[in-house]
């Protein structure tokens, strides 16, 4: 299967949807911050590995604890994924921190500051 094939794209979308549900509803680890979201998923064409990009809206401590909690629950998440999706192989899950949402919020704050300074000058 090619990396950019329709089948791979569909599998990525299905895994992303299921991982979002599993993180929100199935995993009960208290270290996982409530403002955790799955920002992307990359399943290898051979279905052996899966990179799940996680974004946590919170401070550094919350991000670290969430990533620790998710890494410890990776086996359980794989089991839940196997039960919900009908795939030939269930990929090994690796959680990777993605700070794109936090960076976006930071940029919005900076833009608001610049707009406020411009409004004061006028």
Q: What percent of the residues sit in helical stretches (DSSP H or I)?
A: 40-55%
Proportion of strand residues: 15-25%
Structural class, by secondary structure, is alpha+beta
Distance N to C terminus: 59 Å
Looking at how many chains there are and whether they match, the oligomeric state comes to single chain
Integer average pLDDT: 90
Helical region count?
4
- DSSP strand tally: 3
Order of helices and strands: HEEHHEH
- What strand line-up does the widest sheet have? 1-2-3
Give a description of the structure.
The chain has 122 residues and is an alpha+beta fold. It has four helices and three strands; from the N terminus they run αββααβα. A three-stranded mixed β-sheet has the order 1-2-3, with helices on both faces. A hairpin with a 5-residue loop joins strand 1 and strand 2. Helix 1 crosses helix 3. It is elongated, with a radius of gyration of 18 Å. The N and C termini lie far apart (59 Å). The model has no long low-confidence stretch (mean pLDDT 90).
Summarize the structure.
This protein has helices at residues 6-26, 60-72, 74-84, 100-121; strands at 36-43, 49-56, 92-97. It has 122 residues and is α+β, with helices and mostly antiparallel strands.
Secondary structure elements and pairings:
Elements: H1 6-26, E1 36-43, E2 49-56, H2 60-72, H3 74-84, E3 92-97, H4 100-121
Helix pairs in contact: 1-3
